[in-house]
Give the backbone structure.
Amino acid sequence: MGEDPPADGRYVRRSMTVPNDLSSLCGGCHAAMNEPHRPGCAKARCPYCGGQRYDCHEPPGCEVFGGVIDDKPSMWWGRWPQDIAAERYGVDKREIFDLIEVGLFVWDPDTQLFKPAD
């Protein structure tokens, strides 16, 4: 009927879905790629300003967006947003933080990724 169990006696559950690359899981909450972070994840970013979510989702709220506190999910894309921006726009990963800090790259609340400033 089913497959024979492994010779070493381990139980293998065939219906379980496990990502092929465990490195794509969030290091804080183990959210899978393209899924929202779990509540309370220290790695999650504020979906409005790109800062750390725990700084923005406690009173007084996200200062960039006038004290907003809501339940909009913070997405995990399988990699850090700044790494995605560096790859997408051909920027050295070691330089992307400086470009964000001086305002040459900005947070896009719609995509929850960094993009070049207009």
